[in-house]
Amino acid sequence: MTGLIGRTAADLAQALASREISSREATQAHLDRIAAVDGPVHAFLQVDAEGALAAADAVDARRAAGEQLPTLAGVPVAVKDVLVTKGLPTTAGSRILQGWLPPYDATVVSRLRAAGLPILGKTNMDEFAMGSSTEHSGYGPTHNPWDLDRIPGGSGGGSAAALASFEAPLSIGSDTGGSIRQPAAVTGTVGVKPTYGGVSRYGVIALASSLDQVGPCARTVLDTALLHEVIGGHDPADSTSLDEPMPDVVDAARLGATGDLTGVRVGVVRELSGEGYQPGVSARFAESLELLRAAGADIVEVSCPNFPYALAAYYLILPSEASSNLAKFDAMRYGLRVDDGASTVERVMGATRAVGFGDEVKRRIILGTYALSAGYYDAYYGSAQKVRTLIQRDFDTAFAQVDVLVSPTAPTTAFKLGEKLDDPLAMYLNDVATIPANLAGVPGMSLPSGLAEDGLPVGFQILAPARADDRLYRVGAALEKALESRWGGPLLARIPTLTEVAR
What we know:
Elements: H1 9-17, H2 23-41, E1 44-47, H3 49-64, E2 77-80, H4 107-114, E3 119-123, H5 157-164, E4 170-174, H6 181-187, E5 190-193, E6 214-218, H7 221-231, H8 249-256, E7 265-269, H9 279-294, E8 298-302, H10 310-325, H11 345-356, H12 359-372, H13 378-399, E9 404-408, H14 424-428, H15 435-440, E10 444-451, E11 457-463, H16 469-487, H17 498-502
Parallel strand pairs: 2-3, 2-4, 7-8, 7-9
Antiparallel strand pairs: 1-3, 4-6, 5-6, 5-10, 9-11, 10-11
Helix pairs in contact: 2-3, 7-8, 8-16, 10-12, 10-13
């Protein structure tokens, strides 16, 4: 991949700062790429060419006036459609919010604008972030640029596919049970779920409030760190926001890029490997461990005995919180309203929710409402919360022994579109390795670790203690450097060309 669209965000930022290129040129190049290839990829739901170019021109004018600008000023970014954007349609991938124009920006969006990043548009996603494949979008599925017949992961498949197809150098995702990390794994990109509370959730359309976390996505570890630095930090508008300094993730990424991990203790989670993992996934994971060992890390096996119960606990906690959060979509205040002559509010609400919500959303609302109902609350939701506590204790025990934990990000590479739509339980199993981090609120990263036997990308997951996001970037950057030396360049250099993707 050549030209402006093939450059990393860090490279673009440097070229912009030296005035080698303008933000308008960089933004227009990505808008042209979107126009050329997004038809078959369908990474975007909304493209805001006018707004992006206006923001780019504003950055160029400020730079020409000699103003000192933030590092990423002028570098374009794509935003998952779960974050509200003033004056730009925000749907959370659902028909029930079709055409809704928010009157305000999410805090993360405000920070992107303040840092001078032109927003290219809003990316496709599973409806209300419920899914592992972006096939549950109310506006049609996104396709994986590595193979257009396969899924790009979910729920943030649009944000990951935009990176892998070189439609954007940076993107924003959200991660409730793996929706940043799993798409990163199957598209050969980098995605980070920060510590819960490390990035503001104000203006994020909630799925499960105790699990949701916004995070950065990019094609390199350093680019992801640079974006994390922009969006992270305390927000008084978010009651769950951590009121403390954010770790220096950019310095950690640069330190890791030296390739030295001497003294770093890496724990391999016994319960997140073995049976059920595709052979190529396991092989790339083992190779990555050897590269970490060669970089000086101490590799040890640790046990987290309650991790096998995480999936079941998650799929009781998430639907319960979703049932509550989605009750506000009642056809009375905003969004879709279906009025078929119904005479009561209840009938209008029922008709609207029947049409506006997709099957997966209805499935989880019904499950969550049942789990919260009188007589079942303690047996289901209450028990799941007890399991959550046990999982948090597993992390505490493990991190007393090691600095980071590692595992494959997902048990398989990208499966074919439609392959698991009729089997929700099989779909849910894709998140088996990522869910524990959300239940405990700890940060996690996925970065590409090579290609499996089917020629598709594999992800390597790194987990760190809460508030120690910098450890992800140090270890991730060191592994990225070692892998690229082995491959002879970035993994994404092997992705299909423009002609092949656009075909």
